[in-house]
Amino acid sequence: MKRYFSLTLITTAILAGCATTSITSDDVAKGYNSIQADEIAKHVKVLASDEFGGRAPSSEGEKLTLDYLTKEFTALGFEPGNGDSFFQEVPLVSLEADSDMVLNIGGKDYQYKKDMVMGSSRISAQEGIENSELVFVGYGVNAPEYNWNDYEGLDVKGKTVVMLVNDPGFATKDPNLFTGDAMTYYGRWTYKYEEASRQGAAGAIIIHETAPASYPWSVVENSWSGEQFGFVKDNNNMDRVAVEGWVTVDLAKELFTKAGLDFDTAKAEAAKGAYHVDMGDLAATVNVKNTIKKSVSYNFIATLPGSKTPDEHIIYSAHWDHLGTDKNRKGDQIYNGAHDNATGTAGMIEVAEAFTKLGKRPDRSMTFLAVTAEEQGLLGSKYYAANPVIPANKTVANINMDSLNLLGKVKDISVVGIGKSQMDELLATAAKEQGRTVSGDPKPSSGGYYRSDHFAFANMGVPAMYAGGGSEAFDEETANYRKRMSLVLRGCYHQPCDRYRDEWDLSGAVQDLQLFYKVGFDISQQTQWPTWNENSEFQRK
C-alpha cells in the first residue's frame, strides 16, 4: 500500500507541478483505508429507514436528514460551509395536481396514471387547456449548433405540442447527428418543456417509450405524480406552458391513427431532419387543479479548510433527497431511496472522514455539499449554481456521487460524460493503482451527464466528474453475484423496493469512494487546476 501512494504522489507531482507537502503517503493511506463497507452500510440504514419517510424536501424526513448530516460532520471536525451555518436556504413551491383528472382528445377520455400524467408548473390553483389543437413537433428541439429546428416556420400559440423523448441521435445511432447514441441536453424532458414554453405553446406532451427514456412508464407514474417542487419566481412561472405531461406510447399510436397518420412513419421522419405535422382535427382538453404549498428546503454544506489556500475549494456533491411517502398508494407507501441516493450521501460522509485521517489538512479546502430536490429536476444544485456559496472562480473541481455501486468489485470504472475534462486523466491515474481501467458511459443514451447535480457545476464552468461502478466483474464469484443481485434490483429505480438490503456487496462502492478521495486529494495539492477539454461544451467562464 505504501508503494501505491508514493508512486501516485510522485507521478502526480511531476505531471502537474505539485507543491511539496508535509502530508506523507502513509498519511494518505490512512484516509484511503478508513473507507469501509460496514460504515457505508451503517449510514445508509439510517438515511433509508422508514423513520426518514423517503426524505422528501420540506418534510420531517428532511429535518431528520439534515440533523444527521450536521451531527456526523460536526463530529468529524468540519466547519459550517455557509458562514456560521451548515445550511443554504432553497425557497421552493410544491404543486400537487388533483389525481381526479381526465385528458380528453377526440371525444375520448384518457385516465390519470394509466394512460397519461398531466400537471402544471404554473403556481396557480387551476390551469388547463381546452380544445387545444395538437401538433406533432418531432423531438421538440431547436438547436442552432446542430442546424435543427423542429419549430421552424411553425406558430404554436394556443396549441399543444406532442413530441418524442430523447433526441435524433439516439434514434439513428449516427455519430454525426447530435452526439449519436449519447443523449444531449436537448433530449431531456426539462429542455422539451422549456422550449415549448419559449415557443408560446399552451401545452406540451412527451410520448413515453422505455428505451429512449431509459426508464419504464412506472417511473413516470411515480415521479411526475404527487408533489412536484419548483422555485418560487416573481412571475409565478406564468411563462411556462399551462399544461405539461406524458402519455403512453400506446395512447400516442391511437391518436396518430385517429389523425390519419402512422406513428412509426412519423417517428422515422422526425429522425431525418427538423419535422412537424398537424394532427388533423384532434384537440386536447384537460383541467389541472393544484394544491399549492410554499416552503423552504435546504442544501447542506460543510468545509474542512485548506492549510495553504483555504479560499480554493474542491467540492464533493450528492443529493440527500428522494420521493418521500405516497399515502394514496396501496401497500408499501415509502420510497426509501436507499440506492438513490442514501448510498451517495453515505459515501460523502465516508470520504469526508477520510480527509480527517491525514493528520494535516490538504492545501486546498475540501467542501461537501448535499443538495435538496434533485429528484424534482436538480433544483437544489440549480439554486446553488445561481447563488453559489463559493464563487465559481474559487471552485477548483466537483466530484459527484449519485447511486453507488452495489454489485461488488469491478476491474473498470465507468465515467459518465467521458472525454469532457482532465478529471478523466486524474481518475485514470488513481484507478491504475487499483488495477482498474477507465471505461466510458455504460448507457450514453440515458443522458446521465445532464441528470445529476454535477451538471449545475459544469454549467458554472467548473470541471465536474460523475463516475462509478463498472461492467467487468473482479472475479467469477462476483460475476455470479452481479447477475443474481441485478435481478433483485431490477425495476426498483424510483420504486418502494429501493430499500437497504443486507446482501448488498459494497466492496465496489468502497473502491470508487477510495478513488474519489484520492482524486480530490491530488487536485487539492496541485498547482494547476483541472481544465475542460477543447471539444467539451463546457468551459470556464
Give a short synopsis of this structure:
The chain is an alpha/beta fold.
Which CATH architecture of the largest domain is right? 3-Layer(aba) Sandwich
**How many helical stretches?**
16
The tally of beta strands, per DSSP, is: 21
| Arithmetic mean pLDDT | 93
The termini sit apart by 40 Å
Integer count of domains:
2
CATH class of the largest domain: Alpha Beta
Biggest beta-sheet profile: 17 strands, mixed
Query: What is the rounded Rg?
Result: 24 Å
Protein structure class: alpha/beta
Portion in beta strands: 15-25%
| Share of helix, binned | 25-40%
Shape: globular
Instruction: Point out poorly predicted stretches.
Output: 1-21
CATH fold-level assignment of the largest domain:
Aminopeptidase
- Give me the CATH superfamily of the largest domain: Zn peptidases
Question: Topology of this structure?
Answer:
Blueprint: H1 2-16, H2 25-34, H3 37-47, H4 60-75, E1 79-80, E2 87-97, E3 102-105, E4 108-111, E5 116-119, E6 126-136, E7 142-143, E8 148-149, E9 160-164, H5 168-172, H6 189-198, E10 203-208, H7 210-213, H8 217-223, E11 227-231, E12 243-248, H9 249-258, H10 263-272, E13 277-304, E14 309-319, E15 324-325, E16 334-335, H11 338-356, E17 364-371, H12 379-386, E18 395-400, E19 412-416, H13 423-432, E20 437-439, H14 454-460, E21 464-467, H15 476-489, H16 507-525
